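Subject: Protein record for review, amino acid sequence with backbone structure tokens
How to read it: Take the token row as a discrete description of the fold.
Enclosed: The protein record, placed directly beneath this head.
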Amino acid sequence: MALAAQQVPVHLVPASDFAGRALEVGVDVSGALVYGRLACDLDAYVVTRDGAEVDLSPRQVELLALFLAAPRRVWSREQLERVCWGDSSGSRRVDVQLCRLRARVGIDLLRNVRDRGWSLRSSI
């Protein structure tokens, strides 16, 4: 007989984990994250748009969760790398994942803030 998995409160999640690194920068990604037509459930790593599930990689789900949890915040490439990957490599992996995220979600959800980074559009 298998034991039911216990949920660990977000404040006890280690900083080496995505949710812990997000908390270090002041963003709580626990619970249901809903913004406009999008919803993200990090417990199940599921994103829905207008109620239909969107097929995203785990990293894309984490990136979207950051934007949904702090919709007005502008995220730099370095901040996104540090929170999602745990390091800052100086590569273009953030750009690649954001491009793939935009294509898979099917709506123009991010705006580029020149020389600063990206933020969620006010109406999606």
